[in-house]
Amino acid sequence: MSKKGKATADIDFNPEDPPEAYSHPSIHSRVTEYTAMAREVHGPEFDPSSQDIDPEIVMRVGGGKKHGRYWIGDSVIDTASTPTLSQIRARSTDSSPAIRPRPTAAQLQMQALQAQVEVERKRREELEARIEADRQLERQRTEQMFQYMQSVFHSLGQTPPPMPPNLFPPPPPPPAATPNQSAASNAESSWGHWTPARPPHPPQ
């Protein structure tokens, strides 16, 4: 919880939260790895938001206690009652979860980068979905306007004009992401200046 906001903030813990919910993307990977192994040991219904932290699982998933700190929950795990890595290895069987080596700083940085890329990908997909929904709504409104115009022309005994073929041109492709600008922000910049074509004014 301390990695999601201040103690006075109105926040809740949810193991399904995305990386951007935490102060650093690496926290998300730690919580995810711990939750996966805990459910492997205690069953798929294990809920880390309501169950106590399992110190042995923390030792296994974090490769032991490195530099005097546990992988997660360092301030709440009782060191005196937590088995050492040697004790865990001695009593492990073939069915026991593997003791994983703790990632290096470079690996943690790569995990954080991958998590950020995934966040940007989701943001871009959401942006494109909103743009497409706006296009569909604009299309429906324009078609309704033309239907109304056709009914007016028919009531006057006149032939209604056809709908222009290029009334809804395809949107321009989003530009590729640059090192100093994310793909999502590039897409938002490109789409933000696009305005759907407007139908012609009805005859007076």
Work out the helix count.
5
Q: In percent terms, what proportion of residues is strand?
A: under 5%
Structural class: mainly alpha
> What count of domains describes the coordinates?
2
Low-confidence stretches: 178-197
Shape: rod-shaped
Largest sheet: none
Average residue pLDDT: 76
Cα distance spanning the termini: 65 Å
Radius of gyration: 28 Å
The tally of beta strands, per DSSP, is 0
What order do the helices and strands follow? HHHHH
Helix residue percentage: 40-55%
Short description:
The chain has 5 helices and no strands.
Helices and strands in order, then pairings?
Layout: H1 25-42, H2 55-61, H3 85-91, H4 105-155, H5 183-192
Helix pairs in contact: 4-5
Mind explaining what this structure looks like?
With 204 residues, the protein is mostly helical. It has 2 domains: 19-91, no CATH class; 114-192, no CATH class. It is 46% helix and 0% strand. The chain contains 5 helices and no strands. The protein has helices at 25-42, 55-61, 85-91, 105-155, 183-192. The protein is rod-shaped, with a radius of gyration of 28 Å. The relative contact order is 0.09.
